[in-house]
From TrEMBL:
Superkingdom of origin organism: Bacteria
RNA polymerase sigma-70 region domain sequence ranges: 13-77
Keyword Transcription regulation: yes
UniProt GO BP: DNA-templated transcription initiation
InterPro entries per the UniProt record, alphabetical: RNA_pol_sigma-70-like, RNA_pol_sigma-70_dom, RNA_pol_sigma70_r2, RNA_pol_sigma70_r4_t2, RNA_pol_sigma_r2, RNA_pol_sigma_r3/r4-like, WH-like_DNA-bd_sf
Domain RNA polymerase sigma factor 70 region 4 type: 108-159
Keywords: Sigma factor, Transcription, Transcription regulation
Name this polypeptide is given: RNA polymerase sigma-70 factor, ECF subfamily
Length: 171
């Protein structure tokens, strides 16, 4: 399957299942904004899966979403201590090789984000970097929450297409 076909297939799956998965995740985590983040993470995980191995895409999406909601619940229970420990480990394990990889990855991500159209880029940065919620972003930018969701979906599609392209270059 070509990269373009994979991107279309992923987009179709997203359009077909996003509403039911969002409702499912919202029930699981009891927070619509967290559910939206987990929904996006679900499709990112699907993107990094070999599509030939997936028999029932809908069931597989639900499995990924369930696992992410479980991971979220676990992280929420031990958040304070584990975040500090993870940061300490990251700082103490920094090597020149890791620094080089992190630098090139950061540069790639900056180019990828810079490639987003202006309102989409701004929404993405407010959501992912500033950790703002959909309501806060909508109020700040003077747009609806639905528009915030559309911009984040657009950013996800852009990132998915770029990841598929990058993946095809390394294969």
């Amino acid at each position: 399957m070509s990269d373009e076909q994979q991107a279309r297939s992923l987009s179709l799956l997203y359009q077909r299942h996003r509403n039911e998965l969002l409702a499912f995740l919202t029930r699981k985590v009891r927070c619509r904004e967290t559910a939206r983040d987990l929904l996006q993470d679900t499709f990112v995980r699907l993107l990094h899966t070999e599509h030939g191995e997936v028999g029932n895409a809908r069931a597989f999406l639900y499995r990924i979403a369930t696992n992410l909601s479980i991971d979220h619940a676990r992280r929420s229970q031990v958040r304070g201590v584990s975040d500090e420990q993870a940061l300490d480990e990251l700082l103490t394990e920094a090597t020149p090789e890791r620094s080089a990889v992190a630098g090139s990855t950061l540069a790639y991500l900056e180019r990828l984000i810079d490639g987003l159209p202006s309102p989409t880029r701004e929404v993405f940065l407010l959501a992912r970097v500033d950790q703002m919620g959909y309501k806060e972003i909508a109020a700040r930018l003077g747009i609806s929450e639905r528009a915030v969701e559309r911009h984040l979906n657009k950013a996800l599609s852009h990132c998915a297409a770029a990841a598929l392209y990058a993946r095809s270059k390394t294969d």
